[in-house]
Amino acid sequence: MGCSTEVFESFNAVFRQxxxxxxxxxxxxxxxxQFGKQExxxxxxxxxxxKANNEDWVQVGPGIKRFVANNxxxxxxxxxxxxxxxxxxxxxxxxxxxxx
Length: 100
Known about the structure:
Blueprint: H1 2-20, H2 27-45, E1 50-51, E2 57-58, H3 62-69, H4 72-77
Antiparallel strand pairs: 1-2
């Protein structure tokens, strides 16, 4: 229960910061946009695909994947860690073959 509480407490800090930086005209919209940007960034640096302006599907290069996979601080900041053991019910993320 303590670990779960810590995760939600850190989430609340991010939510609170987004609320403080809002222009107060539409705080829910501002918070949703900020969280969308953060999740989009996380999706991209973790090797996800997205549609570019020219309608082609693109992905970050192998250099970025290697950098992220070998940098524990970045993994922890996006909610992942390559050093923790697998737990039942948890999904597994393959960042870059042979990176661990």
